[in-house]
Amino acid sequence: MQNCPRLGEKTKRGASVNQPIKNFSLWVDFIERDFLDSKFIELINEGEINGATSNPAIFKNAFVSSNAYKDELALLKTQNLSAKQIYEKLAINDIKKAAKILRPLYDAMNDGFVSLEIDPMLANNIEASIAEGIRLFEEINEPNVMIKVPATSSGYIVAEDLLRRNINVNVTLVFSEEQAKNICESIKKADAKSAKCVISVFVSRFDRLLNDKLSNEQKNTVGIYNAAKIYNLIENLKPKNTKTLFASTGVKGNDIPAEYYITELLAPNSVNTAPIDTIEAYKHSLLPKIPKLPLSEAQIESFFEELSKKGIDIKETSNYLLNDGLKQFETAFDEIIEICR
Question: Which of 62, 204, 325, 331 could make a disulfide contact with 173, Cβ separation 3.0–4.6 Å?
Fold first, then answer.
């Protein structure tokens, strides 16, 4: 079996020096009000990031751990608002602020996007999801906002409709080639004039789930190979105004470097969205920052053949992780609503 090049190794692409990577972007996977007023601006000014993403779990953690929301949350609770309306006011304020800070990058055509997710409880309600996506985009009223939609049978239709309305879309919770194909088809059908789309491929969850079943040399590589396979598919299909986004790239534990899922997935025409600590580790790493993708189809097929021999069904694993991801976002949203009651 051919292995992924490990961090620090020289590859056939050669030199142990940094190389410009065409159309590569690094986004921070974090939103919090005090952060937006400080570290966020610093990272942008230093050229370390050029975008941001959010999800229900990120907002839940921000509301719980930060004092920045305490007074506004207390004030909103005195008004005649539902818990969801309170959440949206807090979230929209943050997303709008982030979008304004990122706007110069967007205007310079250097990404500058920030994402906000549709209520995950609406995942199976196509009409309600479309209506909410339109409403959120209009309320934020910034051109560099992406509406986040899960990659499900309903989500493909929602994404197509929003793109057709020239609303930027982040299609999230992608674990399989089948999902990516369906998204690419939706993008093709939408034939949007200028709306941008990212296809968010989740990475590290594969490894956290499967590492115990693998040899030491195979640990922490399933997510890389799966992402490489989906990246090749998207690059071959070339959907309009679309990039592959590598998500779930934070490292839990000390068995691999913190920046591992950034360094090992450096690729042209891609985005990597990562937690602050991961970005800082990547920033300070002395290892070469060179393209690692694309991997050859033969190398990828060989890897998955070896997995199959171990009794690991990658399609079954992908379905499990999708369902688990949907549940995690629903749980986080439930917890947000409780905070806002």
Answer: 325
Positions marked catalytic: 148
User: Does the predicted model carry a pTM greater than 0.85?
Assistant: yes
Give me the phi and psi of 245, to 5 degrees please.
Answer: -115, 125
- 9: tokens are 């190794």
Contact between 134 and 162 (Cβ < 8 Å): yes
Instruction: Provide the 10 A C-beta neighbour count for residue 26.
Output: 23
The answer for residues whose C-beta is within 8 angstroms of residue 237's C-beta and 6 or more apart is 181, 184
Cα(94)–Cα(88) distance, integer angstroms: 10
**Residues 24-340, CATH architecture:** Alpha-Beta Barrel (3.20)
Yes or no: say if 89 and 126 are a contact pair by the CB < 8 Å rule: no
pLDDT digits (tens, 9 = 90+) for 30-75: 999 999 999 999 999 999 999 999 999 999 999 999 999 999 999 9
So where are the chain's domains? Answer: 24-340
pLDDT tens digits, residue range 288-317? 899 999 999 999 999 999 999 999 999 999
